[in-house]
Amino acid sequence: MAGQTLTLQTLVEAIMGSISEAQDQIERQTLQNIYEWFDEDGRPKMISFRVPAFGPEADKKRANGESPERELHVPLITLTQNNPIKIKKLTSKFDISLNGVESLEEQENADGKLKKILSTDLFSRAGKKGERTASMEIEFEAGEATEAYLKLQNELLKLF
């Protein structure tokens, strides 16, 4: 790999492509997680709770010494928070050698001037014991639940 050169543009595009792919993977996983809350027929998976009953019938049962209860069926998805994570910030640091500015004769800018690129050598700079080093810091944050998810949850909450 020593001696290989690449443009700074190519390097930045590769990093941005990796970030974009990581965010796409997070979004696909979030969608896959939604399917876990529904059965194969598209019905919400439910959980049942026994809660105290109220009203005239319940009062009669209490007068007879009973503990009136009713069964409450709740869609599981309404008991969760769906705030998908997203990449908030990425900091990438690495050592590169700048080889100079090259003109691309086959490409022109919109104003007719030759396009210029910065040539770099990512592989010539060595860290301890001949290893290439880089540091990357990725910060995630909880995103807002989508409007569709909130509407779905609102409809399901009407069931009980």
Spell out the blueprint of helices and strands:
Elements: E1 6-7, H1 8-35, E2 46-52, H2 56-63, E3 69-75, E4 85-94, E5 97-108, E6 114-121, E7 134-142, H3 147-157
Antiparallel strand pairs: 1-6, 2-3, 4-7, 5-6
Write a structural description.
The protein is of the alpha+beta class. The protein has helices spanning 8-35, 56-63, 147-157; strands spanning 6-7, 46-52, 69-75, 85-94, 97-108, 114-121, 134-142. A three-stranded antiparallel β-sheet has the order 1-6-5. It has a two-stranded antiparallel sheet with strand order 2-3. A two-stranded antiparallel sheet has the order 4-7. A hairpin with a 5-residue loop joins strand 5 (97-108) and strand 6 (114-121). The chain starts with 5 loop residues before the first strand and ends with a helix. The relative contact order is 0.19.
In short:
The protein is α+β, with helices and mostly antiparallel strands and 160 residues long. The N and C termini lie far apart (64 Å). The relative contact order is 0.19.
Supply database-style keywords:
160 residues; alpha+beta; 3-stranded antiparallel beta sheet; 34% strand; rod-shaped
